[in-house]
Design goal:
single chain; mainly alpha
């Protein structure tokens, strides 16, 4: 059997540590301040639009619920089915 020599090739952990030392600059460091400002502004606009969309969906759902409740309040059959049948307490 032939043994492999470990000394000829650096280990993976040694390769990772040397790669981390060489690429210490982050994307934030590489981009200009103008580009970062634009990206931050765009992110805040997207968040605001999402919040507005969720608020609108919530408002529409509340309006639908109110309209359904109003329709049910005018429906005699629904009121009769959901009312208490204990007429003695109304005497």
């Amino acid at each position: 059997m032939v043994k492999k020599k470990n000394g000829s090739r650096p280990s993976q952990s040694a390769q990772r540590s040397s790669a981390q030392e060489g690429s210490a600059a982050t994307l934030k460091d590489l981009l200009s301040e103008e580009v970062l400002g634009k990206l931050n502004a765009q992110a805040s606009e997207i968040k605001a639009a999402e919040a507005a969309r969720q608020e609108e969906a919530k408002r529409i759902a509340e309006e639908k619920k109110k309209a359904e409740q109003k329709r049910l309040d005018n429906d005699f059959e629904h009121l009769l089915e959901n009312s208490s049948m204990d007429w003695k307490k109304f005497k």
